[in-house]
Amino acid sequence: METKVFTIQEALAKVVGNQHLTRSEASQVMGTIMQGEATPAQIGAIATALRMKGETKDEITGFAETMRSHGNHVQAGSGELLDTCGTGGSGIHKFNISTASSIIAAAAGIRVAKHGNRAMSGKTGSADVLEALGVQISLTPEQASACLHDIGICFMFAQLYHPSLRHAAAPRRELGIRTIFNMLGPLTNPAGADRQLLGLYDRTRTETIAEVLGELGLSRALVVSSHDGLDEISISAPTQISELRDGVVRTFDLTPEELGLRRHPIGEVKGGEPAVNAGIIRSIFDGKERGAYRDIVLANAGACIYVGGLASTLADGVELAAAVIDQGRAMAKLQELIQTTGELTHVS
Question: Which residues carry a binding-site annotation for anthranilate?
Answer without folding.
Answer: 86, 117, 172
